[in-house]
Design a protein that fits this description.
single chain, alpha+beta, GMP Synthetase, Chain A, domain 3, three-stranded mixed beta sheet, 4 helices, 3 strands, globular
Length: 116
């Protein structure tokens, strides 16, 4: 398909994330990808089986960072901002949970800024 052309075979950001996650995990039937839409941006939430969270995040966050970069590229084309939220808190120590809550608050603030 030509660049910039919109049609029925173009994946949405949520669908793109879902396809990538499905390619990474073992338990495809337990993958849930949901988009929470704001006026100028969205949060894409990813929930997987306990055993698959690490596969979605990747070594040193490599997979999650790659997905975030792709979402950033889509923002450049569409003008909509996207925040990737991988449900992973059950893996964290108390300190890591504190940091994750802080990151989530910051992400919510950024989304609030996007939605006006």
């Amino acid at each position: 398909m030509a660049a910039g052309k919109k049609g029925a075979d173009v994946l949405s950001a949520r669908e793109m994330v879902e396809e990538i996650v499905l390619a990474l995990v073992d338990h495809v039937d337990e993958v849930r990808v949901r988009e929470v839409i704001g006026t100028r941006g969205s949060i894409i939430e990813v929930d997987t089986a306990f055993d698959d969270v690490g596969k979605v995040i990747g070594h040193n966050g490599m997979h999650a960072d790659a997905i975030r970069r792709l979402l950033g590229a889509i923002k450049g084309r569409t003008g909509r901002g996207y925040i990737l939220d991988i449900k992973e808190e059950e893996f964290f120590t108390q300190e890591e949970k504190r940091v994750a809550r802080k990151r989530k608050r910051n992400a919510e603030r950024r989304l609030s800024d996007l939605t006006g």
